Task: structure prediction
Amino acid sequence: MDYTLTSELDKTQIQQIAAYVDKKIKEVDNDKLTRENQLLLAALNITDEMYNLLIKHKKLKDEAKEPIEKYPRLRDDYQSLIMDYEKVKADFEKSKDDFMESMKKIDDLNSVINKIKQEIENKDKIIKSKDNNLKKLRENLQKLQDDNLDLNKKVKELEKDL
Result:
């Protein structure tokens, strides 16, 4: 059947509602029922769906009540956490930069230490060489002193003989 309706809803929405009602009437279509009974049964089925949806809506509304009430506080807590995170992140970045700078200084100092160690090793080699030379010179000096003593004895003996 065609009906003329006036509504603030747009045409597409009215057509969708009419198609839904028509579908519900067809679901209860039965030769044993009069047209009025079919319409009444379809209306009852639609009302039952609507009632169940209202109960579900109330349940969802009750479940959402606490989160909705807590939302402003949660949002504020979230914003506070974001600010804390940004501060920690900035502190971390500064610490990371300081650490990298310290590592560079450590590398530079290690380089200086390695140069000094090399210089010490070179000087130790020179000292060992000089110690060896000094030891040889002392040995030679001792030998020369011994030879000198021997020669002095010989000179004295020769003087006696003269």
Notes: The CA atoms of residues 67 and 74 lie 9 Å apart.
